[in-house]
From TrEMBL:
Keyword Transport: no
A single MF term (Gene Ontology): acetoacetate decarboxylase activity
Domain of life: Bacteria
Signal sequence extent: none
Protein name as it appears in the record: Acetoacetate decarboxylase
UniProt-annotated catalytic positions: K118 (schiff-base intermediate with acetoacetate)
Native species: Bradyrhizobium manausense
Coiled coil start-end: none
Family: Belongs to the ADC family.
NCBIfam families: PRK02265.1
Stated role: Catalyzes the conversion of acetoacetate to acetone and carbon dioxide.
Length: 263
């Protein structure tokens, strides 16, 4: 294969059979169970990277179970993880702290394109008679269980759609061949072309179990604040870099050198 062929074909690994296709990535009938809870502010502060800011007075976490039965290029899969409400330069949004899912394509694509912190596990989201149930298993062990009364009350669709439209932030880390960081960036992305098909709320509960490799319980549940069940079609927009940690580090080194010359 010629070098020009490599450059033309290079999109994702493996070169001759990428783990995922180019976008756009459209999701149909995407279903969420989002349980918002209050946690320990010190533990929250310890996992959110600057320059993102958290509201320590509220110290909120959104635990999400997401069912994706129809997605372009990624197929049919389920996801679960924690999103932390943050503020970046005066804009409110969400920082994705961890994600667990059961499909290789979106694990590879999510990590390589956007910087989603995705790991392989077995989440589920289903309706059992009158209860919406989300679970997360890592290997044979259950690490998260969320429940909500099924469609008890309609949620405010305007507020739900506004929340889905907020920016989302990711910490993208790609190592160099020597193990040092080659890319270390804060990435912003948005959900686009959202068609909200319904949203409901109801009583909810969330149980998190400690696990060494799926440490969702390290942000403990102190109080359930709210829960929402959402169905929507949407497109996962590609990201933009809003902060480059390595560039900032390089500039800091230059400034330190300049100071050394002065003094």
């Amino acid at each position: 294969m010629r070098e020009t062929d490599v450059k033309q074909r290079a999109f994702a690994m493996p070169l001759t059979n990428p783990a995922y296709p180019p976008g756009p990535y459209r999701f149909v009938d995407r279903e969420y169970l989002i349980i918002t809870y209050r946690t320990d502010p010190a533990k929250l502060r310890a996992v959110v990277p600057e320059p993102l800011e958290v509201d320590e007075r509220e110290a909120l976490v959104k635990y999400e179970f997401i069912r994706m039965p129809d997605s372009n290029g990624f197929g049919d899969y389920t996801e679960s993880g924690q999103v932390i409400p943050v503020c970046f330069r005066g804009r409110k949004g969400g920082y994705t702290h961890c994600m667990f899912l059961n499909d290789e394509g979106p694990i590879a694509g999510g990590r390589e394109l956007w910087g989603f912190p995705k790991k392989l596990a077995q989440p589920t989201l289903r309706t059992e008679i009158d209860t919406l149930i989300g679970t997360l298993d890592y290997g044979p062990l259950r690490v998260a269980t969320g429940t909500m009364g099924y469609k008890h009350r309609e949620a405010d669709l305007t507020k739900v759609k506004a929340a889905l439209s907020e920016p989302n932030f990711l910490l993208k880390i790609i190592p160099h061949v020597d193990g040092s960081p080659r890319i270390c960036e804060l990435v912003q992305y948005r959900l686009e072309d959202v068609v909200l098909k319904g949203a409901w709320t109801g009583p909810a509960a969330l149980a998190l179990t400690p696990h060494a490799l799926a440490p969702v319980a390290e942000l403990p549940v102190l109080e359930i604040i709210s829960a929402v069940h959402v169905r929507a079609d949407l497109t996962l927009g590609l990201g933009t870099v809003v902060h480059d940690y390595l560039r900032q580090q390089a500039r800091g080194s230059i400034r330190a050198g300049e100071r050394a010359l002065v003094f």
